[in-house]
Design a protein that fits this description.
Keywords: ATP-binding, Nucleotide-binding, Transport
Order of helices and strands: EEEHEEHHHEHEHEEHEHEEHEHE
Distance between the termini: 6 Å
Number of strands: 14
Radius of gyration: 22 Å
Largest sheet: 7 strands, mixed
Oligomer: single chain
CATH topology of the largest domain: Rossmann fold
Bound molecules: adenosine-5'-triphosphate
GO molecular function, one term: ATP binding
Family: Belongs to the ABC transporter superfamily.
Protein name: ATP-binding cassette domain-containing protein
Structural class: alpha/beta
Helix content: 25-40%
Pfam family, one: ABC_tran
Length: about 300
């Protein structure tokens, strides 16, 4: 269980984070989304006791991070995979961390296997690791103390497609066993594939908070025509609002039937016509983060689950 309650962080006159509240419950993966500079890292740092909030409070498993007697046994954190000592091997990094956490040494081998750092990789200095290997080591370190909560900042950064697929499975399994996962990412489709809950932040404030299904429900129809201009004109004449997507299709505020009929009436050939889904998250993200904090979008109250 993670809880952020009215978290605010000011640097001088600038508010990096303003009145941010959300909860993440056991058994769920929460995607924490927002454009550059939105306040994601600052929020995660406040959750993990690295940045003191100007006001508000954050707890993990009911306790402020700094008050947890042995935090790594409760919450696994990966905020900056590059922050490893470059002269130590992956195995050394984990062995030292295991000693600090008071976990058995055999756990080091377990987590190395779990993250796929096998063969010669554990013995190599981390300075020679690729970004993907550093991410895997960071995830191994986060898992070392068998925590019930994971807080990960951009964990897919530097992972190849196979690595991203692997990480998705790992996080899903962690949550399915009752764990709580909060992960920030710019990779919207990656988040969409693994998260069941979304918190979107823009300009330092929460602009959407709810289950993925609810936030994406009613996100409209995705349509692509042979003649894009003719299609736009046909939809406008039918009174349907459209927004272009990044890959040249149109997201329409209307049902697939209404869009299909409008196109047919105008004799426009369609190449694609479907419920938005995949495009929905990108559109939601762009719309909400551009709209700013004024219009907070709560799909559903977040369940209060004590842990
Ligand atoms: N130590 C600091 N001093 C002053 N301003 C800061 C500090 N840390 C963050 N900020 C500012 O707070 C805002 C939020 O930054 P933050 O790093 O939390 O955003 P982010 O969503 O994580 O962005 P990114 O995805 O680019 O990492 C930014 O405008 C940033 O410049």
């Amino acid at each position: 269980m993670i809880s952020a309650e009215h978290l605010t962080k000011r640097y001088g006159s600038q508010a990096a984070v303003s009145d941010v509240s959300f909860r993440c419950g056991p058994g769920t993966v929460t995607g924490f989304l927002g454009p550059n500079g939105a306040g994601k890292s600052t929020t995660l740092r406040m959750l993990c006791g690295l940045t003191e909030p100007t006001s508000g409070r954050a707890t993990v498993a009911g306790t402020a991070y700094r008050d947890l007697p042995n935090p790594g046994r409760v919450v696994g954190v990966l905020l900056d995979a590059g922050a490893q000592h470059p002269g130590r091997s992956g195995r050394e990094v984990l062995t030292l961390a295991a000693r600090v956490l008071g976990v058995e040494r055999r756990r080091v081998g377990e987590v190395l296997d779990l993250v796929g750092l096998t063969g010669r990789a554990p013995g190599k200095r981390t300075g020679q690791y690729s970004l993907g290997m550093r991410q895997r080591l960071g995830i191994a370190q986060a898992l070392l103390g068998e925590p019930e909560v994971l807080v990960l900042d951009e964990p897919a950064n530097g992972l190849d497609p196979e690595g991203i697929f692997w990480m998705r499975g790992l996080l899903r399994e962690f949550a399915d066993r009752g764990g709580t996962v909060l992960l920030s990412s710019h990779l919207l489709h990656e988040v969409e594939a693994v998260a069941d809950h979304l918190v979107v932040i823009g300009g330092g404030s929460v602009v959407a908070d709810g289950s993925k299904e609810e936030l994406l429900a009613g996100s409209g129809t995705l349509v692509r025509g042979l003649d894009g201009e003719a299609l736009s004109g046909a939809l406008a004449r039918a009174g349907l609002d459209t927004t272009p997507t990044s890959d040249g299709a149109l997201l329409v505020d209307g049902s697939t039937e209404a869009v299909g009929r409008a196109a047919a009436a105008a004799g426009v050939v369609l190449l694609e016509l479907r419920q938005a889904e995949g495009a929905g998250l990108e559109q939601l993200f762009l719309t909400l983060t551009h709209a700013g904090a004024a219009d907070v979008h709560h799909a559903a109250p977040v369940e209060e689950v004590a842990r």
